[in-house]
Amino acid sequence: MESQQAGLILQALDFAARKHRDQRRKDLEASPYINHPISLVNLLWNTGGVTDPAVIMAALLHDTVEDTATTFAELAQEFGEEVQQLVKEVTDDKSLPKQERKQQQVEHAAHLSDKAKLVKLADKISNLRDIIASPPADWSCDRQREYFVWAKQVVDQMRGNHAQLEAVFDQVYQQGISQLSDR
């Protein structure tokens, strides 16, 4: 990788860390939120062999517009149109009710670009792993199971894009469903 591309990825990491600095995950430990986008990059790069700088930057930035005061214009200015567009593809419209947003993810997943599908797939794998390791404190087993089933509905719409990451999703999904069935 060129040093310029590595520099842009580090710039995206720094940007995401600053934007998410006061946020925590919903697990019992209230983990720093930045661990989540970093886990996407780790999955994409080290498990999936995805090294496309735009995909990696979008993975780092995927929740900035949805969860912070970041704008799409700001992302375009800092990281270019391609990264901004990838983030836009995976960003929920927070003005919609939660159930409608979740339904839209299922309906729109098949229409994402191949690069956006990689970010979305890594996001779902990361979220399922987090629920298995340390679920949100206030989530019942039923709510966890519902999330797993919904995540699979989203991923099933994107199949055929990256067999290796899809296999990882399937393994994590089966592990989680099995553990939830044992409770």
TrEMBL record:
- Highest taxon above the source species: Bacteria
Q: What is this protein called?
A: HD domain-containing protein
Pfam families per the UniProt record, alphabetical:
HD_4
Which species is the source of this protein?
A: Trichocoleus desertorum GB2-A4
Matches recorded under Gene3D superfamilies = Hypothetical protein af1432
Tell me the ranges covered by the HD domain, including all copies.
33-128
User: SMART domains this protein is in?
Assistant: HDc
